[in-house]
Structure formats: structure tokens, C-alpha cells
């Protein structure tokens, strides 16, 4: 079976270490890799627009000497309309050596990987996974701090819906001495499943509504946006919104060696005045993202490997989630897995619980 | 004059044989061709979306070491709006060495070819021609069956409007011992002009409404879709639709060496359960399409040749077809040709009859 | 500071001469430049569609052996939506070595250049500047006439709003012996600021409403379109429109060595019958545009140079122009400059006057 990366969990700690090492080597010796993918073709299939991510993948492939074919994100693509994701997989496997796909439905990337004869990288499937964002975050932290262990990591903003935050917490939980500070309005607190996972692993964290209060203890400040549309109570939004906008004033009590990350795009949650601060790392993060994508493409094209497997239960449950790929894909079988021995079953495409 | 391919009839039997041989050689020795088009530029101008065809052309060009510039099929392109096809031809000839165009109007590809100073490949002009699809079909049959002669070819579905079917019949009619079985609902039978052409050449065929009835005698089964919107009588559609969906059950009486083709995309006219059948060839057909496009690009870039000519009659008739390029193109002269000595005249752009 | 080209005025006469020489050398020795940009990446960011210009840049980059990443002009790009131009600059600087941007707002290219760490070429910012069109015009005149000096240049059509005309007049005003004939309907006469600039430099020009009257004296005829929507009085439009359509008849009194230019696309302001006239140069102009863009990319990638500076006045005035980038860009400071010693101040982004 071809190795694909749909979820950050598809990568072992060893594989992540190896990607970090490769990315570092590319940064230092770009010429060594300039023809590593000569004659290879990357397909970037963006069935919803995400220009930044798409350009990052394409720039990465060109940095390796390869070619790119692209569905650049217009909504009226004929591959998107009236053709199943599985058929798209069969088709594009004829044209490309590796595929990066963005799709509005949860599980679409998994369906693509299950039907493609080439490696697939999930570049975002609905609100589900976006593993190369997490890889970019990890490389940024590693390059800037020199380590993953013994860090106090603040995550700020919308912790309820922010998938990049959940993935980052998951990935950093693998390292010793990591501590989290969860900074958010009450209505956007970190979900129970994340809190439970941290608790189960005995990883320390605290929750607060005040960014200024948390600031002095942080090694990393990971900012995300607090969106108006997440609030039922618009008055409440007006009250809290300014507390989650990062300004030079709020940085006064921060450590000199703290680093500020953000998955971008920002709207106004970080003042432009912060951009000049040496602690601001969010533009560098873009650059690190490109190198990490280069490393990932190299790994997937170089090392076909067995994918991790878990026992699947077919056709016992039916997924009801409106945005799950099971709702639209022709003749796709329902498939669930059991979470440990919990008796809880989740859809393999969108992770929603069986009822 | 530059050689362009607008219609499958622009290629002689010898040229098709040569393309098949080149495609086979590319499949066996891809490295030999990896730099055949170094420094050359293909323009893919898709004025209506057809992602699969576009990606196939682009992948083909990259497999030859060339570059690609693209209008990827968004409807709001400024080349499409307010500029004539002839001016587009002049312009893009400055930027590319060869052009593949898809356009919603019949005859647009011919207008492009008549004004371009580089070879043009028609990647579909309205409901008119799509020669590289036919080339893909031919290579698939040739590779899978080892011959074109002495084949019983079933074509199933919408035989009235399906241009790929008409072109395939036309192309296969050149070879001895070919027989056709036309499988369709009554209201979507093969048009008179195709029947007449077969009759004139003495090529045997029969018509049937039953796919199951035809199955045992077929060497090739070419499936197309029966679309609801083609039926005036929706009750009739409901009655017949399932008969034209290919399932493992319907395949039980088929020959072991039969091959199933489909131009894709499919909607549901072939069950996903058929995909695993060794007779299913529609995904391989995609791959063959890429190799045939590589061979065609090579031929057109390597061998400028005189185009076939036929005497044209200017300005005696006026084409009335709403989707013909003559309706919109600035100062384009009306041009018709006589079909043999029949006294019938057809528009050179859309083939509709002069009244 | 990185050298960018936002306005034709960013290039000195010496730099333009050097670009003309490089373009000529590329035309004669394309092989010499075929790998000049190996491994380099051009980003073409088209936040409004302009396919012709985009394809020209991309073809230019491929002619130099480089790569291209692209936002091809769909209006629903996520870089365009919700992200500031400054952030786009930071992001795309991570992915590309040089950027060509088209944007609907005046000043967007300047904001991009001020924040990018790579050279920026303005491929059109609203109704403001489009310097590579002017460079294409200049190369066309230079190649076809052998000189810039001692030319009578007719500019015809919409002289009020036509930015390409204003830039061309500005650029040609640098050379001795140049004379202009301004041919337009009364309501679309050349604006006062252009007339004043010519007057201040002592450059001769005359104005006329008759193309036929001007024809015999012209060395260059630069055609632009007279658009219906520019006329408040539709009856007047109907009266004058045919006078500004170039036909073979109107060319009867033109010099044999006159050259006809047009920035394209044309709608119907030049009859197709003129295309075969040896004086018609507008399609060659496309080709020259490609070579000039190659020369410009080479110059900007090869020679980082100090940008010209002028003293800026911050935050004293506020720009009110609806389409200026200052209306939307997050935390962008208002910046104006004084025109000479005139006491007139203009916005550095859109050139509108301070009130």
C-alpha cells in the first residue's frame, strides 16, 4: 500500500523527526535538492480555494525540480461536479506522481487515498484535518526554540472550532515537559475531547480568559482568530473581541525569547505594529511550511511504506454528518472504528460518533 | 500551412497508425521522451471547464519536458470576453508553441487554427468534435485487443447526441471486419447520418434496446450516459434508466476477453462494483489518453505538414445554428462545403446543413 | 532595498535603453537565455482577470527556464479575500523569487512592493499604472521605426481615461523631436494634467476630432477604444463612433512606413480587414511584450538596486478615492508627496490630489 498523509497521526514521532531533519537540510543546502523530483508531477486539487496553501505546495515542488498540474480552486471544476472522489483518484493517478487535495467535505482525502495509486497529502478536508499546517507549526517551533520538550505553549482565540490548535496540541503532547495555557473566551473553550486526552496522558494545562495574564509564562504564543459569527450573543462579542487582539502593549510582559505563531491569514487579530517585533514568527512560519512540504513530498515519493491499520466495522452504523463524504460519494460503504476499548465508534471519514 | 487536429478526420489512417506506434514506444521507454519538448510551451485554453482533459494535456506536456501556460476554465477570462477567437489565436501564438483549446461553440477550434501560427489541437468545441478522446479510445482498443479488425463493438446509451460515439464509429469504420451493435432506448437511437454512412460503406450493424441481449457477442462495450434531460417523457426515462446501468449481473454473459470503455466522467451508469472486474478498462483509458496526447503533441511539433483541403463556398449560404462560432466572431465569412456530389452543403464550422 | 517596477517612471532612460537592448538580444539569441532563470519562481497574482497579460508573463518566465506559480484571476481567491495586500506580500515572498501582480485597486502594487522581500512588477493596479504595456509599446516603436526621436505620434480614441496612452506620452516625451497628434471626440480629450506636462516641457502637440485629417502626417498611430459607456449622451456616441473605427479606407492617406499599434484586446475599433496590412503591428506588439517582460524579469532578478526616493508626508492628508488601496488595507498610513514645488500634494498610491 502507498503511504499517504491524511492526519498528523499518520506520521510516527520518528517520521516527524526525519521530516524535521530533511527540512533543515533543504534550508541549508537547497542546491542539493534542486533536481530531486525531476520529471515528477504533483497535482494540486483544490476544490475550495486556499491559495496560500496551494502556492506553498507548488513552490515546494518547483524547489525540488518537479512539475505541477492544478485545479486552482475555482468552484466550477468538472472534476468536482458530478464525478465521485474515487473516480477523481483513479483519473488523477494517471496524470500525477503525487496528489495534494483540499476539499470541503470531511473524509474526502481518505476516500482519495483509498482509491489512488499514488501518495495523497491532505491539504485540508472540511473542518477535519490539515496535517501540513501542523508540520509547519512544528518546524517553526523546532527551529526557533531548538527543542520541543520543556515548553510552555499558549494557544489563544477560538479553541473550540480551531482544528489547527487541536492538531498542534496533539502533536506536541508526544514530548516531555510540555505545558499548555488555553486562552479563550468562555464560549470558545477547548473541547472536552482535547481536555480528556490531555488528562489521560497527564499533561499539565490551565485555562484562562486573559491573554495578558498568561503572557509572562509563555515560550510559544499561538494566536488564532475569534470570529464574530461564532457568538450567539453579539454584545458579548463586542465586549471580548479586543482582549484577543495582540498589540505591542500586550507584549510588554512577554519573555524576550517567546515566539508568536499564527496559521494565517490574519484579519486583525494581530496588529500590524507587532510584525516588526523580533518575536513575531508568523511570516517565517510560511517559509518553514514550504520546506516541510518539500520534505514530505520527498518522503512520500521516496519511501512507499505500509500504512497504519486499525480494524474497521463496515455497515453496522450510518454516519449522519451533513458535510461528511459518505453523504455524496457513489456506493461508498459506511465504515467505523472503535476508539480503544471505549465502546465509542467513530466514522473513519469525519470522526463523528456513531449513535 | 501548419498542421492542426480539429476533427479525427484530419488524421489519415497512416497518421493514426504512427500515433499508436509512438504512444506504445513512449509507454515502454518514457525516459527516451522525457526531454523531447524541452523549452517548448503548450497553452491549454479552456473556455469551459473540463478539468480531466486539461490535466491530461498538461501531464502529457510535462512528460515530454515542456512547459504549460493555461486558461484553466474559469468562465470570467478576459480572453474569452470581448475578444474574438481569431485575435486569441494571434495573441497566444506569441506565447506558445502549440495550443489545445476547449470552447463552448462549434467551429471555434477551426477559427483558432485558421488564425494561429502554431499547431492547434481541438480539445472539444461545443457538441462538435473531440478528436483526442477518440485517439484515447483507439489506443485503448488497440492495446487491449491487439487489433482493430474483426471486432464486434457495442456502443450503449445515448447514441443520438453522443459525439464520442459518432467519432469512434467513424474511426473504426476504416478497418475490415468491424461490426457494430447499437444499444439504446428508442428515443436515443443512432442518427440517420451515421446509419447512412455505415450503409454506404457496407459495414454491418444491428440495433437493439437490450444491453443484456447484446452482451454475449461483444468484443468491446463502449458505455455512455443516458441523461434524464434528453427525455421529454419522464415516465419513460424512469422505465428505461436501469437497463442502461452496467452491473456485475449484466456482465455474467459477457465474454472473458471483452473490454469495457467509457469516456468518463461517469455518474452512475457503471456500478462501482464493476471497477474491480478485469474487463473494466475505463481508468486505463485515461492513462492511454495521456500517452496518445504525448504522441500527438510530438507529431504536431515535429512535423509541420500540409492540411487536407476541400473547396469552400463563401457567402452563398448563412449558418443559423445558435451555438456556431459564426454567430459571434467579428467579420467571419460564411463558409460551406459540398458533401461529395450530394448537393448537400454544410457549414465548415459546425457541420449544419445549408437550407 | 529591492528594485520594483510600479510605474514606468521607476525606470530611468538608461534602464529603458538597457531593457530594449536586452530584449533585442533575446529575440536574436533565445538559446542564450533559455536557462537564465533556472530554479527561479515567478508568482503571477491576478486578483482580477487579465489573461493576456498573465500568459505573457508566464511565457516570458518559461522562456528563461524558470517556474511559475499563479493566482489565475478567479475572483474568489482566499489571498484576495480577508487578507491584506501587505500580508500577501510577506507570504508570497516565501514562495517566489519575483512577483507580477494585477489588482483592482490603485496603489495595491506599491503596497505589495513595500512589504515584499522580492522584486514586484505592477501588471496593472486599477486605472493607475501598467508599465509593462508601455515597455511593450516602446519596444514595438523602437524595432519598427529604428528610433524614438523625430516621430509624429498619433493617439486615437479615448484619451481621457486611457492610462496606456498617458504612460506612452510620458515615456516618449523623454526623446527629442517627438510630436503628438491627439485624436478624440470632444468629450474624451486628453486631460489637463497631460496637456500641462507637455506644455511645461515644450513638446509640440495638436488636437483634432478627425482621424482621417490626422492620418497623412503620422509615423505611429496608436489606437484605443471609444467605449459607449463613457458617453452621457448616447446620441452623440452613435454619431461619432464610426469615425474612430480604423478601416482600410481610412488608411488610404497614411504613409507607407506608418505603424499601427493597439494595446489589445480590440473589440471592433480596428476592422479585421486591416490585419493583413503590413502597417498593422498590434499582434507583433504582443510578441514584443513577451520579450520586454523577459528583459525586465532578468533585470530585476539580476540587479537589486536602490529605488528612487521622494520625501513623503505622512498623515497630514487623507485620501478619499474609493478605489484606492488606502480605503481597505489594514493600518496603512496615509502618505502624500508634493508635486515639484507646486503646493499640490498627491496620494502616493493613487495619485489623487489632497484637498
Report on the architecture of this protein.
The structure is a homotrimer of 355-residue chains. Chain A is an alpha/beta fold. Chain A folds into 3 domains: 8-129 and 290-302, Rossmann fold (3-Layer(aba) Sandwich), CATH 3.40.50.1370; 132-278, 3-Layer(aba) Sandwich (Rossmann fold); 311-355, SH3 type barrels, CATH 2.30.30. The first copy, chain A, contains 11 helices and 12 strands. Chain A has helices spanning 13-28, 30-33, 51-63, 85-93, 108-115, 131-145, 163-172, 192-201, 211-214, 234-240, 282-302, and strands spanning 41-46, 67-71, 98-103, 120-125, 152-156, 179-183, 205-208, 220-223, 259-261, 313-314, 335-338, 345-347. In chain A, the strands form 3 sheets. A 5-stranded parallel β-sheet of chain A has the order 7-6-5-8-9. In chain A, strand 8 (220-223), helix 10 and strand 9 (259-261) form a beta-alpha-beta unit. In chain A, helix 1 (13-28) crosses helix 11 (282-302) and helix 6 crosses helix 11 (282-302). The first copy, chain A, is globular and about 55 Å long. Chain A binds chain B through residues 39, 41, 43, 67, 69-72, 74, 76-80, 82-84, 86-87, 90-92, 94-96, 330-331, and chain B through 34, 49-52, 55-56, 58-59, 62-63, 65, 68, 72-75, 264-268, 271-273, 275, 283, 286-287, 289-290.
Amino acid at each position: 500500500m502507498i503511504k499517504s498523509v491524511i492526519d498528523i497521526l499518520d506520521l510516527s514521532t520518528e517520521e516527524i523527526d526525519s521530516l524535521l531533519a530533511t527540512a533543515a537540510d533543504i534550508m541549508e543546502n537547497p542546491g542539493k535538492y534542486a533536481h530531486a523530483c525531476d520529471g515528477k508531477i504533483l497535482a494540486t486539487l483544490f476544490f475550495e480555494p486556499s491559495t496560500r496553501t496551494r502556492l506553498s505546495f507548488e513552490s515546494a515542488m518547483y524547489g525540488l525540480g518537479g512539475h505541477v498540474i492544478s485545479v486552482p480552486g475555482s468552484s466550477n471544476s468538472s472534476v468536482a461536479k458530478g464525478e465521485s472522489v474515487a473516480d477523481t483518484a483513479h483519473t488523477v493517478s494517471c496524470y500525477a506522481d503525487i496528489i495534494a487535495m483540499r476539499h470541503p467535505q470531511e473524509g474526502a482525502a481518505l476516500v482519495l487515498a483509498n482509491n489512488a495509486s499514488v501518495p495523497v497529502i491532505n491539504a485540508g478536508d472540511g473542518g477535519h484535518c490539515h496535517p501540513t499546517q501542523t508540520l509547519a507549526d512544528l518546524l517553526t517551533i523546532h527551529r526557533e526554540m531548538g527543542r520541543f520538550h520543556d515548553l510552555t505553549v499558549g494557544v489563544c482565540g477560538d479553541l473550540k472550532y480551531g482544528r489547527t490548535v487541536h492538531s498542534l496540541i496533539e502533536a506536541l503532547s508526544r514530548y516531555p515537559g510540555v505545558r499548555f495555557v488555553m486562552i479563550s473566551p468562555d464560549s470558545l473553550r477547548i473541547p472536552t475531547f482535547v481536555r480528556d486526552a490531555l488528562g489521560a496522558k497527564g499533561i499539565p494545562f490551565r485555562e484562562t480568559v486573559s491573554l495578558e495574564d498568561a503572557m509572562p509564562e509563555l515560550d510559544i504564543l499561538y494566536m488564532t482568530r475569534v470570529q464574530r459569527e461564532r457568538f450567539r450573543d453579539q454584545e458579548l462579542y463586542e465586549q471580548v473581541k479586543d482582549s484577543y487582539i495582540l498589540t505591542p502593549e500586550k507584549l510588554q510582559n512577554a519573555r524576550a525569547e517567546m515566539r508568536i505563531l499564527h496559521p494565517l491569514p490574519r484579519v486583525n487579530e494581530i496588529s500590524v505594529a507587532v510584525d516588526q517585533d523580533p518575536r513575531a514568527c508568523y511570516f517565517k512560519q510560511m517559509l518553514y511550511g514550504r520546506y516541510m512540504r518539500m520534505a514530505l513530498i520527498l518522503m512520500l515519493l521516496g519511501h512507499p511504506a505500509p500504512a497504519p491499520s486499525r480494524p474497521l466495522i463496515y455497515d453496522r452504523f450510518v454516519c449522519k454528518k451533513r458535510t461528511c463524504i459518505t453523504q455524496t460519494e457513489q456506493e461508498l460503504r459506511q465504515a467505523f472504528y472503535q476508539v480503544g476499548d471505549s465502546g465509542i465508534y467513530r466514522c473513519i471519514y469525519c470522526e463523528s460518533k456513531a449513535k
